[in-house]
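Record minuted for everyone:
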Amino acid sequence: MNINHMKAFLEVAKSGGFQLAADRLHITQSTVSARIKVLETQLGRQLFVRKREGCELTVAGRHFHRFAYAAVRAWEQARQEVALPEELNAVVTLGVQMNHWERIAPAWVETMQERAADVGTRVVADYSENLLADLSDGLIDLAMTYIPRQQAGLACELLMEDTLVLVSTTARKVTKHWQPDYVFVDWGAEFRAAHSLAYPETRAPRLSVGLSMIGLDYILKHGGSGYFSERTVEPLLEAGRLHLIEKAPTFQRPVYLLHPKEPIDAELLDLAKGALKDVVAIDMRQERKQTQ
């Protein structure tokens, strides 16, 4: 199958229309239609239901979508690695759960450059489910996630634990009732379940975010409260910009390291893992110093 045909398919699925897809790909609508027609002929299935207001995926189209996505991603990655400059011998890709991007990714890249100047580094920031899918498809080499996936071919180990604390821009005590300024940060399924047990009377918040830094920036600008990593808010607590809410329950948020059990380059993977574990260890030591 042609990669350009699959790119057209993915763009139509994303935009919901052939003309929109054509505009984004900078080709004509007839070219997009022709590429989709070739795919449908090769697969022997209709991929889209055409409607007056646009189009939507058929059942076959939905099944094909993940294969097309993986194929296009793999092709793009292959292009990057094959085109490596002469001074680089390999590339290693780390997937980082988005809430840990700021603290972990830059330090890991710097450590890798110090230890292996001939190895290129690539970092992908995403949510845990997407990182696991990329890892399974071979698009990344190792991943930090909130999900301890037990899967054939993948090794999983506990990397670190975050303590999530409830903070507010105003000093107050904890309450089980709904607070209009509460920002819900979604730290994953385990956190959602524990949060519901701890606050059974809480109504749906006005603002929910999947990325902690967005929630933190919001309450610092507009006031409010929310659950954040203790190590992230420690400097803000010391500066008096945030206050720890008294007697509020805390939550542990484990972070796992996953990678293939049989990697293509075991030595390179060990190097990347070692650098990551050292970065995490330094980060944890800095947190303990701040709390002492």
Q: What stands out?
A: The mean pLDDT is 88. The first strand starts at residue 48 and ends at 51.
